[in-house]
Amino acid sequence: MAVYKRRYKVYEGALTPAWSRFAVLTRYSLSSLFSSRLFTGYFFLCSIPLLVGIAYIYGANSAIVQSMLGIRVNGSWGINSSWFATMLQVQTALGFILIAWAAPGMVTQDFANQALQLYFSRPLSRTEYIVGKIAVLALLLSCITWIPGLLLFGLQAGLSGNGWGWDNLFIAGAIFVSSWLWIAVISLLALALSVFVRWRIAATGLVIGVMFVLPGFGEAIDFTLQTYWGKLLNVSYTIRLVWANLFRIHPRSIGVFRTDVPVWSAWAAILTTCVISVLLLNRRLKAREVVRG
Amino acid sequence: MQTAKDLTGRELRAAPIIELEDLDVKLGNRLILNRLKGALHGRCIGLLGPNGSGKSTLINTLLGFYPPASGTARMFGEDIRGNIKRLRSAIGYMPETDAFIAEMSGVHFVRYMAEISGLPRDEAMERAHEAFFYVGLGEARYRKLGTYSLGMKQLAKLAQALAHGPRLLLLDEPTNGLDPQARQRMLQLVREIRDTGEVSILISSHLLHDIEECCDEVLILKEGKIAALCNLEEERKANLKFLELEVNRENGFLEAIHGLGCECASFGGGRLKIVLPEKIHVRELYRLAAEQSVQIRRMNFRRDSLEDIFLKAMEGKSTVTKGSANGSL
Question: Which of its termini does chain A have fewer beta carbons within 10 Å around, N or C?
Answer without folding.
Answer: C
